[in-house]
Structure formats: structure tokens, C-alpha cells
Write a structure and sequence with these properties.
The structure is a single chain. By secondary structure, the chain is an alpha/beta fold. Helices cover about 40% and strands about 25% of the residues. A 7-stranded parallel sheet has the order 3-2-1-4-5-6-15, sandwiched between helices. The protein has a 7-stranded mixed sheet with strand order 10-11-12-7-13-14-16. Strands 8-9 form a two-stranded antiparallel sheet. Strand 2 (about 30-35), helix 2 and strand 3 form a beta-alpha-beta unit.
């Protein structure tokens, strides 16, 4: 397969970062989106061609495209029609989601994509490139592992799109992988102390995308993902379980969405430059052995633009494995180390 990279949702916060990084690196992309005025304005500024179409019409607008980099969320609403269009037209699919449901959708339709010669790789950004690669790394050091814990500490703010996606899942509880199956648990049901490399932090279980992807990457059937969180926020998160029915009310979500829409698109360049992210992974075997590793990375949004663009270029040049893939199954556990500003502490195996 040969052809162009189409960046859909180019005028959104992360899409815009990715488009500008492509221009900086001299990578040609087609900018696309639903809003004609915003898409054309960005394309004119950066000197890229553009296409305007709604998701339901995507299949008719993929001529000459090798890979779609889908950046228009919430992906729980937008991924399915774009995946379907890509499979229909024989175009590889990437996105930057962290939503468990989207990963499971891609795994479900993976055989159909494989039959069409199409790769489906959701999670080509901060969700879940660094954590997925770290999971595969510790699993390689301890292949007998039956349990996996992952955690991250993000030091920056969130974008409008990220906050909107979080809002869509407000009141739905948490999720873990237990005996191979995704299991719904109460919000913030578990916590532990984790050293991310700069001191121990309180970390709280969250329904991160690796609950899905790390299972497909490693085959480990018991997975919990944690996020560093102050204990006060942890207590508030646990208390939200009592308010879950109200948090799911459409009127409340509309009110909160209106407030988000009135706010900034996301952290500016200076804020991102001051930020960063830290990740930790530990695989455990029944005999008590543990393999642990850590990773340091830039701000999640800068990493997303970097990693997703690198993957899109590689795929456009022919490096694609048909069917559902995770970052590590497609490109190996060391892929994340190609991204700017990423470093990894090697695995330490203890116990047994």
C-alpha cells in the first residue's frame, strides 16, 4: 500500500499540534475535518492540501490515502465509522484514543480488517504508546508473569478534548482485567504507593486503555492501571461512587460540557515545556519474582503528536501489520525510545 497520510480532526487541539509538527519535520499530510472554515484556514496557514467531510461520508473521501490518523474524539462516538470506512477502502487506521471500548472494538473487528489487509492501531499517542511499550518490556523480562501493574504520573494540564472524553464516562466506575476479562469496579477502588523515580507517590486505580491493550500485547490476564493522585483527590474520587447516578444525568453532562467549551483548548507551549510524564510497570510471576521498569517522557500531548506522526509515516511507507495491533505488537517495545525526550530505566527482576 502506498499513498498519503490523512489527518482527520486536524483543527482540534492535538490534531493542530500534530499538523504543525508535520510541517516542522517536512512531512506532507492531508488535513481533514468536518468544519470547512477551520480546516481550510489551518491548511492555508501550513501549506497542506485539505478535505472536508463528515465521518458518515468518510469512505468517499479516502482516495489516494494510505493511512488515516484520526484525532477527532470522543472516540467512543467517532472511531467506529472511521474504522468502517478504512476497512471498506483498504486504508490503515490510527487514532489517539485511550478509551477501553475503542480498543475492544478494534480487537473485535480486527479479523475483518486483516482480511482487507488493513491495520487498526488505536492508541498511537500518550494513550497508550509509552505504557504499552513498557508493559511489553517487563513481560519480555518475565515471560511467566500472570499479573501486571502499570502507573503514570502526568504533570501537565488536560485539553478540551481529553476533558470532554472524561466527561462522557463520568459516573461509569473503573475497570481492571481479571482472569482475562475486563471487570467493572468502583471508581478509585484501589491505591498503592509507587516510586516513579522522583519519590514515592500515592497512585489510584483508573480505567486506562492498557486494561485492554496490555492484555493483547502480553497475554497477561490480570492488569491494573494506576494514576498518581493526591490523597485528597483520591478520597473525592471514591466519594463520587455515591453520586454515580446523578453524574450520569444528561442535564449535568450538558452543563459541564458547556463550561468546558468556554475554556481554553489545552495547555500552551510553555506549560507543556514545563511539564512531563513518568511511567512505571511491574510484572509479577506466581513464584514471587517481579520485573520492574520506569520510563520518563515529555508532556503527554507533545508525545502524542510525536509518536502518532512517527507511526503514521512508518505505516505510509509500508510498515503495517494487518488486523488489530497495539503499539508494541506493531513496532516492538523499544518503539517509544525513538520519540523525542524519552528515556527508560532497564528492568530489575527481584524475588523468587
Amino acid at each position: 500500500m502506498s499513498g498519503a497520510i490523512l489527518l482527520y480532526g486536524a483543527y482540534g487541539y492535538t490534531g493542530d499540534l500534530t499538523a504543525r509538527l508535520a510541517r516542522q519535520r517536512g512531512i506532507s499530510v492531508i488535513l481533514a475535518g468536518r468544519n470547512a472554515e477551520k480546516t481550510a484556514a489551518l491548511a492555508h496557514e501550513l501549506g497542506f492540501p485539505h478535505r472536508v467531510f463528515a465521518l458518515e461520508d468518510a469512505a468517499a473521501h479516502l482516495d489516494g490515502v494510505a493511512v488515516v490518523l484520526h484525532c477527532a474524539g470522543p472516540f467512543s462516538r467517532t472511531a467506529k465509522p472511521m474504522m468502517a470506512a478504512c476497512i471498506e477502502r483498504g486504508v490503515h487506521y490510527l487514532d489517539i484514543t485511550g478509551e477501553i471500548g475503542v480498543f475492544e472494538l478494534a480487537a473485535h473487528v480486527g479479523p475483518k480488517a486483516a482480511a482487507a489487509g488493513v491495520m487498526l492501531l488505536p492508541g498511537a499517542g500518550f494513550d497508550v504508546v509509552p505504557s504499552d511499550c513498557l508493559a511489553a518490556h517487563v513481560h519480555a523480562a518475565l515471560p511467566e508473569a500472570t499479573a501486571l501493574e502499570l502507573a503514570f504520573q502526568g504533570l501537565g494540564g488536560v485539553s478540551h478534548g481529553t476533558a470532554s472524553t472524561m466527561l462522557q464516562h463520568l459516573g461509569e466506575g473503573g475497570a481492571i482485567r481479571e482472569d482475562g476479562k475486563i471487570t467493572v469496579v468502583p471508581t478509585a477502588h484501589a491505591s498503592r504507593e509507587i516510586d516513579f523515580g522522583a519519590g514515592v507517590r500515592n497512585a489510584v486505580a483508573i480505567p486506562w486503555g492498557d486494561v485492554s491493550t496490555a492484555y493483547h500485547s502480553t497475554g497477561i490476564g490480570n492488569i491494573v492501571v494506576y494514576m498518581a493522585m493526591p490523597k485528597g483527590m483520591h478520597r473525592a474520587a471514591r466519594a463520587s461512587n455515591l453520586l454515580a447516578p446523578m453524574l450520569r444525568q444528561p442535564w449535568l453532562r450538558r452543563m459541564l460540557q458547556a463550561r468546558l467549551d468556554a475554556g481554553p483548548a489545552g495547555p500552551d507551549a510553555d506549560a507543556r515545556a514545563r511539564s512531563g510524564s513518568y511511567l512505571w510497570a511491574e510484572a509479577s510471576a506466581p513464584d514471587g519474582r517481579r520485573a520492574t521498569a520506569r520510563l520518563k517522557a515529555p508532556d503527554g500531548y507533545d508525545l502524542t503528536a510525536d509518536s502518532s506522526l512517527r507511526i503514521a509515516v512508518a505505516v505510509a511507507e509500508g510498515a503495517a501489520k494487518p488486523g488489530f495491533q497495539t503499539p508494541s505488537t506493531a513496532f516492538g517495545s523499544d518503539f517509544v525510545l525513538q520519540c523525542d525526550g524519552v528515556s527508560r530505566e532497564d528492568v530489575i527482576v527481584t524475588g523468587g
